[in-house]
Structure formats: C-alpha cells, structure tokens
Amino acid sequence: MMPQDIRTSPVCNLAVGEEIRGKWSHYRYRIRRRLGYGATGAVYLADSDHGVVALKIGHDQMSITSEVNVLKRFSKVQGKVLGPSLIDVDDWLTRNGTYPFYVMEYLKGETLFDFMKTRSPEWAGILLVQLLTDLHTLHQAGWAFGDLKPDNLLVTGPPFRIRWIDVGGTTIMDRSIKEYTEFYDRGYWGKGTRKAEPSYDLFSAGMVMVNLAYPSRFTKASDPDKQMQAKIAGSPMLKPYASILEKAWNGKYRNAEEMRNELVLLLNAKEKGKTPLKKSRTAIQKPATRQAQKKKQSSFLTETLLVFTFVFIVYLFYMLGQTM
Amino acid sequence: MRTKGTLRQILLITDGCSNQGEDPVAMAALANEQGIAVNVIGVLNENAPEYHRQGLKEVEEIAMAGGGISQVVYTKHLAQTVKMVTQKAMAQTIKGVVNAELQQILGSKSTMEDLPPDKRGEVIEVVDEMGETMNLEILVLIDASGSMEDKMLTVQESLLDLSISLNSRIGDNEFSIFAFPGKKTEAEELLSWSSKLDSIGKIFSKLTLGGITPTGPAIKEGIAAFSRKRSSKRRFLADDAPGYTNESSM
C-alpha cells in the first residue's frame, strides 16, 4: 500500500473529449483539458451549451458540496463579483462510482508569477491593493478566504485585475479555517490561531507578497520573526513594503481596509519619488515627471494671469462705457 | 437534531505491524461499538523496504473495523495528514449521525448522496456547523516501537499543529496521549485529558522506545480511558462539585 495520491484518482485523469453527463439536470460537458488539481479534485476546461466553462470534479461529496455552498454565497455578496460565478451542480454516474461535480464560469488569465515575470515590481503592490479590496468585501459579508495563495489567484484582463479561482478554504467568520497551505498559514509560523478572522487572511496576503519575491518559498527557521525580517530586508522588491508586511505578519491590522489604505498611501508616496526604489529606469523617469509637474504648475500660473488681465480689460471697457 | 454533543475519536499513529496481544482489528471493532471511531495513520519512510509497505495493510483494516479513516503517508507529510485525517474523521462520524437522521425522515436506504444537489447543500451546512460546535475528545495512540525513533519529533510537531487547528474551533477539545509499549505496561498514559498540548515536548523527551508493537492492547487501553472519563464525568455531575478536578488531574 502506497500513500494515496489525488493525482492517481480517475477524476484527475479524465481523457480529452470525454463526455460528462449530469445525473440530475442531464446537461452534457465535453472535457477539453485539465486546468489543475487540488486537495479535493481536479478542474477541467470543458465545452457545454453555455459555452466554455470550468468544471471541478472530485470524489468527496462533503468537500465538493461545501465549495458549492460557498460559491452560492458569493453570488449573494451584493454588487461585487468575487469568485467565479456558479453555473451548475450535479453528479456524474460512472461504472466505477458516482462523482460530484460543479460547473463555473471560466476565468481566463495568467498566474501571479507569470504576470509578474514581464512586469515592473510596483504591480505587486497594486495587485495586493486589489486583493485587499475584495477581501474587505468578503469579510464584511461574514467570511474569511482561508487558503489564500498564488495557486488560488489569477490575473485577468486587461484591464488587469486579480481574481480568486478556488474558494475551497472559504470559512464562516470565527470558525476554524477549512483549508490552508503551510507557507501562508500563520499557525504554521507560530503567529496565531487558525480561527477565521480578517487578520488570518491579511497574514496570508502578506505572505503571497513575500512569495512573489521568493518564488521557491522557504521553510520555518528556529526564530521565524528574525527570519522574516531578514527575508524582507534581503529583497529589493519587499523592502519598501517592510512596515506593512510586518504589521500583517504580527496581526496588527483590524481589517483589510486599514491595510489597503496604508498600502495605497505608500504606493502614492513612491510615485512622487519619496522612496527611491529601483536604479536606472525609475531614476531617469522620476526627474522627467517632476519637470512635467513643474511645467504644469507654470502653465497654470500664466493661465491665471491671462484670465486676470482679460477680466481687468473688460472692467476697463465697462468703466469707460460708464463714464461716456 | 443535536447540535451539541461529544465526538469520541482514537487516532493511532504507527509504522507497522502489531505483534503482541489482542487483534487490533477486533479491538477497533469493539471501540466502534461503543461510539468511538478509530482512525489510523501509517507512517512510511521514504526508503522503506517492500515488506514494510505490506505491513501497513493492517492500517486500513483497523480503520475500517473502527468506523474511521486511514491514510498512509511519508514522514514529511505527517503534520498535514494528522489534521486532515482528524477533520475528515469528525466529518465522517457526523455524516453517519446525519444519515441516520435522514433515514428516519426519508425512509430507509436514503443517504445524503440520494438527495438532489440543492438539498444536499443544506445538509452539509448542518454537518459543517456540527463539526465546528461539537465537543471533541481525541485520544492519540503513538507507536513507540524502536523503528519510530526518527519520526518522534515529527509526530510531536504534528500533534502541536493539530491542537492549533482544533483549538480554533468553537466547540471544546480534550486530548489524551498514550504511547505503546509503555515502560511497564502495554500502553502508558503520557498526557491525561487536557485541552492544551503545550507541555507535550517534555512528555516526548521522557519517552523510551521499546521493541514490541502491542497495537491491540493499546486500543483496548484507549477504550478504557474513554470510559474512565465518562464515569468520572458522571460522578462529577452527581456530586455537583465545582471544577473538573477529576478529569484534569495528571
């Protein structure tokens, strides 16, 4: 007997062109290719009457149904699109057994790492701002995301927008986090409980950022606090965010909005050149923008002068008219 | 439906065949009869010889008889697995209870799988809720035979990690830890019922590893620990004494 591995499960190895037919609603789906797999099953790209969709199939009724429950809740979070929208839920009857599956909107995009490869580092901060905006909405609705990590995120667009694709870890506030991954889990680092609360997600959000600077991740050392300080200081990409990352690490933020606002302030400050970040490229760009700003200011002055002179001349004519 | 109750689980962590005393599969069946689920984690070395892997067949049989779940893992994945197995086992036990209730309502042979997806979602919400709020008594049985020596530190870390997860729940948790073989007996109590596992490091350092693997007697000892706890609770209720002194004394 070998360790069981989800990858060897039949639902994780469906053939291209295989047809999946729902037991209850009888809709058909034709498998195009596998998009990925997680702890509870595999996600496929599939063709259907609704067009191209993402189909997640697993063997555990419990976990698949839990995820469906979460996706349903997402559609109830008012006005905001958070996760992918849910299209269909059904069972697939095969000779080997019954497999639960659900169908959702297919989000097309790049992984976080692929996206960052071709773009400048400030994008990391901007994506994090977007992520925190969504987290705040989710928290307000009474949920924590739980298993926040690059694998569960996608950048769609343009216009570029970070989206989450796997909601398996989403947990009702104050309960224990359903699913997590060690590197992004504060329990693993000895930095707190696994209770679903905003600070749990904010810790993970910080670690997603750290992960972007250290794509191969790293394991816990004897003094995680010191280790993290060194890792942040050792990365030119993370250093400007040190204060924010440290607060997230220590659970100092009460909500996502607080962290988001601090991050926005920091990003704005950076644009004005208060924290010089990179060498050549920005160094050349910054004086240019400053000159442009100056030019703008002086043109504003001349404009005002012109308006004043014009008004004065009109007034003169008026006075002349009065006296004549 | 009860929303508050107590789940009783045995978690057995072992790396091979039992070789002394009662049949562990029979003892697991006995535990199951008394409302205690037996879950088993088989730990495997990365370079384990083939005969060793064969020995882990017992792991599956014990869990099946004990109404629990089993998982075989490599040492480095132990922490994740201990937590996963425990939570799955809890869910499975609760699901059993819920299924029984469903059968009363919908007639025999109906299970959750026979419900259309919509209704199933509602049932799972109840299961989730129960898993979060029910009290949990978990008794850990650790194989302390010689071959486990290089895995003990990982076992210790895994249990600490498990306690972080379980103590994040709303319901109460109590842990008890036994090692087998013990110094003088077949199974020795390392930690009496307690909600905290902080002191676990000291316990493990005192542990001496023995040669035999009396898995069956260890499960039997586990059952006894549960019934001792139950009877002390009853006494406590009858006496109406303040505090849980009977249960938390070491």
From TrEMBL, chain A:
> Single GO molecular-function term?
kinase activity
Could you say which residues bind ATP here? 56
Q: Which keywords label this protein?
A: ATP-binding, Kinase, Membrane, Nucleotide-binding, Transferase, Transmembrane, Transmembrane helix
Q: Which residues form the Protein kinase domain?
A: 29-289
Record Gene3D superfamilies: Phosphorylase Kinase, domain 1, Transferase(Phosphotransferase) domain 1
Q: Where are its TM segments located? A: 300-320
Output this protein's name.
Protein kinase family protein
For this protein's source organism, the top of the classification is: Bacteria, Bacillati, Bacillota, Bacilli, Bacillales
